[in-house]
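We now fix the convention by which a protein and its fold are recorded. The integers have meaning only within a learned vocabulary of local backbone shapes. The record below shows the convention in full.
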Amino acid sequence: MIRTVTPNPAVDVTYTLPSVRLGEVNRVREVAEAAGGKGVNVARVLAKLGRPVTVTGFLGGATGERLSALLATTDGVAQEWLEVAAETRRTTTVVDTHGATVLNEPGPRLAEDAWVALADHLASLVRAGDVVVVAGSTPPGTGADELPRLLRRLHESGARTVVDTSGPGLLAAAAAGAHLLKPNHHELLEATGATDVRTGAELLLGHGAGGVAVSSGEEGMLLVLPDPAGARVWRARPAEVLSGNPTGAGDAAVAALADALAAGT
């Protein structure tokens, strides 16, 4: 079983109109809503691959109820959210002929014991051998020790963890022994201070990560695993550069890695 954890999910609202006129009344042509958050996106891809998947994380308020209802229309995705009192956030995207403008709400401020409750919740769901993907931002006010504490609890339950995060959380996840980290190359270099991808990945291995998969857009992906004789490195490049909107490509990559890990490949 694969489970995804989205600490800071959102209802993604998209407004489409011919042109945005600042300071004036604008009439929206189309409105679309979708359940959002990196872990949710990963779960959708896994469901399309035919892999049973369960989503969890913090969910609260009327926005949380709306997110759950939107996600319920996706076949193959089960929901086991931890309900909280604070309201789940929204992201708003305004699209016109000039492009898209995204407004991201920060997310709810959680009770002090919320992360402990999430760890307990996951411990009741996870079985030895499960793959757990922890992906996306954390709500404002989240302590630096919350993510590594959650990962250690998952490891005690026998789960294998895949983490897609950035900043100090990337180093903390490595130190907690995450089985696989999946930053993009910008996130990797920023978090580690390295000047090249391989060195940055090896630094994360040195912190305790079991493996590092680094996505680099059209340059493909680099997988770095520890070895007594030195890190083993694989590079995969697409046979051809794809065109189109790259949004969600990183989440699709995380889903593919989690699927392979669950399959034992």
Notes: The chain has eight helices and 14 strands.
